[in-house]
Amino acid sequence: MGTSTPMATRQRESSITSCCSTSSCDADDEGVRGTCEDASLCKRFAVSIGYWHDPYIQHFVRLSKERKAPEINRGYFARVHGVSQLIKAFLRKTECHCQIVNLGAGMDTTFWRLKDEDLLPSKYFEVDFPMIVTRKLHSIKCKPPLSSPILELHSEDTLQMDGHILDSKRYAVIGADLRDLSELEEKLKKCNMNTQLPTLLIAECVLVYMTPEQSANLLKWAANSFERAMFINYEQVNMGDRFGQIMIENLRRRQCDLAGVETCKSLESQKERLLSNGWETASAVDMMELYNRLPRAEVSRIESLEFLDEMELLEQLMRHYCLCWATKGGNELGLKEITY
């Protein structure tokens, strides 16, 4: 961890330089990009009423005037908790001698929160649409609570950042399309991604917006690129029933098509996709099962934050999302033993 004085840190902040760059965005992806904003607003609201601690999200997204429903807040709590537990299990197994690649990261703040807990991997990468990355980099550049931790870990005096890429010693943000794997790999390697290191890849509500063929190609690329790896996928499940159909229709009305929904039929179909694309082990739980496994003290704490009228609605919602994880290699590290 760095030992810069506040003054030295302030001086180094001015070392973040940027050069403008334009990017053309596919209009068809607009609805998908909109889901990033939705997720950020929901997380910001849940944090504001005490569901979990995140002092960084306020620097990326405004607090919505619109109150979010209690079942939505509990759903996000379970999602953040579940993904975080798996990330920390991977970091423990590898003793942080690893890298993390967050695919479709949006305004995620995991890098800063891991740094606060002294749990940073060797390098943390984020990838998203160039338009989203440009917005995230603007916040980082303008807000010292975001830029200082990056500079503190960076050995050079200056940190180059253009419209949709930032590369530093321990953190990189890359604007790329996950459907263009050659571009993705080229940009990651340019930012010193090391295929020899144990690697954790994370995708939260990302694969479902790709066609089954596109998501299969991404999963295959990930399995083939790293000898020792883990993949975490959070997204919809049990989408064949009436509730699932309503979810699909609601998103479609907002010009957001779930192109990969056929893979979200069941926990089995989710695991099968991972196993048939190069992964050696695969596990999956729906979010209600995960919620029921939460420590009782934590459940009591969050349930006291606000009144939930219909437990049935929470259950229905949670049964339609799942957390999946897969591993490949890393037997000597015990990656196969990782579970929620």
TrEMBL record:
Catalytic function, reaction form: [phosphatase 2A protein]-C-terminal L-leucine + S-adenosyl-L-methionine = [phosphatase 2A protein]-C-terminal L-leucine methyl ester + S-adenosyl-L-homocysteine
MF (Gene Ontology): protein C-terminal leucine carboxyl O-methyltransferase activity
Enzyme Commission number(s): 2.1.1.233
Gene Ontology CC: cytosol
SUPFAM superfamilies cross-referenced by the UniProt entry: S-adenosyl-L-methionine-dependent methyltransferases
Keyword hit for Transmembrane: no
Keywords associated with the record: Methyltransferase, S-adenosyl-L-methionine, Transferase
Coiled coil ranges: none
Enzymatic class: transferase
One Pfam family recorded for the sequence: LCM
Keyword Glycoprotein recorded: no
InterPro entries linked to this entry: LCMT1, Ppm1/Ppm2/Tcmp, SAM-dependent_MTases_sf
Source taxon at top rank: Eukaryota
One of the protein's GO biological processes: negative regulation of protein-containing complex assembly
UniProt binding sites for S-adenosyl-L-methionine: R79, G104, D177, L178, E204
Function: Methylates the carboxyl group of the C-terminal leucine residue of protein phosphatase 2A catalytic subunits to form alpha-leucine ester residues.
UniProt record similarity statement: Belongs to the methyltransferase superfamily. LCMT family.
Name under which the protein is recorded: Leucine carboxyl methyltransferase 1
Lineage per the UniProt record: Eukaryota, Metazoa, Chordata, Craniata, Vertebrata
